[in-house]
Amino acid sequence: MLPNGTEVQVRPGTEADLDALTALYNHYVTETAITFDLAPFTPSERRPWLLSHPEDGPHRLLVATDPDSRRALGYATSGPHRPKAAYAPSVETSVYVAPDATGRGVGTLLYDALFAALADQDVHRAFAGITQPNKASVKLHERFGFRHLGTFGEVGRKFGRYWDVAWYQKDLKSG
Fold first, then answer.
1. Structure confidence by residue, pLDDT tens digits, 88-110
2. Using an 8 Å Cβ cutoff, are 50 and 21 in contact?
């Protein structure tokens, strides 16, 4: 439930969500520097990404939906941090919220559910890269215990300019 009392369902993503999640992500591809993808995806191009997030394990895809309309309000993921085997206990997390649902607590609900799902997994650290400036994302990540590690200056070019990416870390398990 959102702070304003609106019911929201958070559940694992399925292939039935592919079109809606692709459209949501494509908004951020074409309209923002939040992601460094430069061209929108078709659902078939995005399908391997969706399938790389099973319902269990450390790599998750959770979707927030309006229970009445079943419309996707956003999604959160955890995925591999790096491809080499020794990085397996680390994940990279992200949250994308539909433009008309931002600022309503959807991202918080998604991260609550994602970190609850990861609690029993062999995950030691979570990392998040946040294109700067993005005060809302920084605030969300800090609320969940992420701490700033450093910033890669002008690491990506989009819309004819260079963008910095700040990296954040959340400790999940000790040992």
1. 999 999 999 999 999 999 999 99
2. yes
